[in-house]
Design goal:
The protein is mainly β and 137 residues long. 6% of the residues lie in helices and 42% in strands. The chain has 2 helices and 9 strands; from the N terminus they run βαββββαββββ. Strands 1, 2, 3, 4, 5, 6, 7, 8 and 9 form a 9-stranded mixed beta sheet that branches. The longest helix is centred in the N-terminal third of the chain and has 4 residues. The chain starts with 9 loop residues before the first strand and ends in a 13-residue tail after the last strand.
Length: 137
Amino acid sequence: KMPPKAKPITVVKNFGGRRNTGTPLAVQEWSLWDCDPEDSSGRKPSRGHAYGRTFPWVFDMTEKAYVLEGEATLTPEDPALYGDTVKIGPGDMVTFPRGWKGTWEVHSFLRKHYAFFNGKGLRVDEASDDDDDDDDD
């Protein structure tokens, strides 16, 4: 049996190009998420917020995110499956592949727009992610 094909995180730097001022229109209606690395209270993350400098994460759907501010390093649990460690920062358009498993290390207050996509590349609503019937991997 073939090993599953590696699915690394992909990053497009300066999404929208140099003339882009502000957030690209395409992502403005996406949900917002932020993480405060200085908050070490141990609070559990909620849909829009995370706390603390490092935490494990699994993407159970494909997510695209546009970084508004802050920087983070994402280290995969298994580089053979998920490629290299990736650093993200402002202006980056990041695609997190479904199934990616690893650790976030947030270096400075991070804010991003994000949205989920199905296998066909169509945007899906967060609320609908539990009745996802394409568990064929």
